[in-house]
Amino acid sequence: MTEHLIDMTLPALERYYDTAPRVGGARAEDFGPLTLFVQEGEGWPYYARPALGGSAATAEDVQRVRARQRELEVPEAFEWVAETSPGFRAAAEAAGLHVHAHPLMVLDPSAEALPPHPEVRLIEADDPLLTAAVTVPALAFADPGTALGEAGAAELAAASVDPQARARAGQVSAMLASGRTVMAAAVRDGVVLCSGQYNPVGEVGEVVGVGTLPAARRRGLALAVTAALVAQARARGVRTVFLSAGDEDVARVYARAGFRRVATALIAEPPQG
Ligand SMILES: CC(C)(COP(=O)(O)OP(=O)(O)OC[C@H]1O[C@@H](n2cnc3c(N)ncnc32)[C@H](O)[C@@H]1OP(=O)(O)O)[C@@H](O)C(=O)NCCC(=O)NCCS
Fold first, then answer.
1. Both 91 and 144 in a single domain?
2. Within this chain, do residues 144 and 249 fall inside the same structural domain, yes or no?
3. Are 127 and 246 contained in the same domain?
4. Which of the listed residues 150, 187, 212, 242 should we mutate to test ligand 1's pocket, taking the one with most ligand atoms within 8 A of CB?
5. What is the residue range of 89's domain?
């Protein structure tokens, strides 16, 4: 990707980060240079971030938002792009938060499409495998990294009957029905082995929640699911497809699907313990 494309992409991502929570059912609370997004529906809690086009935030601004987050009993989480808001890391750290960095990657518009994988298909709102497809990333993120692990079909079956899994599936089903998310999964013998989503807002879409059952890793399934999401996004007119990779190992998988690192996504949270 050329520097010019990167320069054009970062402002589009800022608009996405500001819009996606609003269309996802969050209200925006104005804290001057910061915006706190608060989920009003049943979805996941959101974060605070530098206000779109706002001035530089200070540690005191961060503390004001943290106090409000505690009052609302929502996570004291902040998310932003390092290159777009270069001074914010120092403000977050001065306010006592721990900052971690993730490669921010954008699909190269000239990347060649990968061939479809025979075991990968889209999951619709009423799909009988939806609860399993929503549960696979939960098991995957509980065993981070890219190594093979223990949890497989039996653990998935047990986790899928959990009421929380069913509640999550209900939320995702509503999002699928309204077009706010698109889901793809790798299914073998009726068992979901890997799944992922992308969330479109206009011409921008973020790939999220790609996870492979620990026992089914290192067979190319995440690459195939990501490729299916990319193909759908392109077919539906999404011009900018992006994601934050967990770490450099995960970023390698996405690079094979045509994503290129353009910036660094930063997340700040209170230090653990
Ligand atoms: C990251 C994750 C989704 C990757 O899933 P996966 O299905 O194992 O991914 P792939 O099989 O496409 O690629 C993983 C590795 O297996 C290798 N591989 C793929 N097919 C292979 C095959 N047939 N034989 C041997 N190795 C293979 C890939 O080359 C890659 O190797 P690398 O680590 O050296 O780059 C999975 O490890 C996971 O769920 N991790 C926890 C959650 C997470 O971090 N998700 C990403 C959020 S951004």
1. no
2. yes
3. yes
4. 212
5. 3-105
Dump pLDDT digits (tens) for 235-273. Answer: 999 999 999 999 999 999 999 999 999 999 999 999 986
The token duo for 205 is 């879409």
DSSP annotation of 42: S
Distance CA(16)–CA(7), nearest Å, equals 15
Q: Is 258 helix (H, G, I), strand (E, B) or coil?
A: coil
What separation in angstroms does the CA of 4 have from each of 1, 9, 65, 112? 8, 9, 35, 20
| Atom from ligand 1 closest to the CA of residue 186 | 7
Q: Are residues 242 and 134 in the same domain?
A: yes
* Centroid of ligand 1 to alpha carbon of 217 (angstroms): 6
Please report, for residues 10, 24, 154, 229, the alpha-carbon distance to residue 143 in angstroms, rounded to integers and kept in the order given. Answer: 31, 27, 16, 23
CA of 55 to the centre of ligand 1 (A): 40
Q: Whose Cα sits closest to atom 39 in ligand 1?
A: 211
CATH number at residue 194: 3.40.630.30
Q: Tell me: do 132 and 245 sit in the same domain.
A: yes
Asked if 44 and 153 sit in the same domain, the reply is no
Is the pLDDT score of 5 beyond 90?
no
Q: Are residues 224 and 149 in the same domain?
A: yes
Give 221 Cα–ligand 1 centroid separation in angstroms.
Answer: 7
The last residue of a domain, from among 76, 105, 134: 105
The minimum-distance atom of ligand 1 relative to the CA of 211 is 39
Most ligand 1 atoms within 8 A of CB, residue of 79, 199, 253 to mutate: 253
pLDDT tens-digit readout, 155-191 = 999 999 999 999 999 999 999 999 999 999 999 999 9
Instruction: Tell me the pTM.
Output: 0.96
